[in-house]
What we know:
Blueprint: H1 2-18, H2 28-49, H3 71-86, H4 88-92, H5 96-120, H6 130-137, H7 139-179
Helix pairs in contact: 2-3, 5-7
Amino acid sequence: RFNSICAFYYLLGGYIGRYRTFLDDISAPLCAVGYFVCTCAMIIWGLTSNGYFSGCVAEGYNSYPISISSPLCVTQSLFLLHLLKKEEIKLRALPVEVQSVIKKLSGAALYVYLIHILLVNLQPVGKMTLVHRIINHSPGIKLILVYLISVAIGVFVLDMRRRMFAVKIKRCDNQNQSNE
């Protein structure tokens, strides 16, 4: 199932890049609105399908509304791709510092994916403090904290990898100079 979804997104991206679609006629602001509407709908559908608004928690967790195979997620992806396609010239004109931040955050996305589930399931040891109770009973606050902590860890790991790589290159350069 996972491979077929990845293949679907790959083919969808190739199709969008090669052929004209109905979204090509939609302006960038409308693409942004479409992305936002899909995001809100996914959140509401996810909470509703898991009993958040009914007051009783569902038996098992239903992840389909927010999964990558959800029709809303596919539509959301289409809107985002077209928004970025329409704004590419403006993005390339951004200052180098801003582009550097965007590159760091996009590089940290993999780490967010890898780390977030550990943070979501993290339970405090010992007595629960007021902060723990607020976080565990407020999914919005927990979502934001998990995302920010995951991004911070991802940026830290990427920075450490970059520094280690720079040290290795410097060692190789020093060895090459001493051998000459």
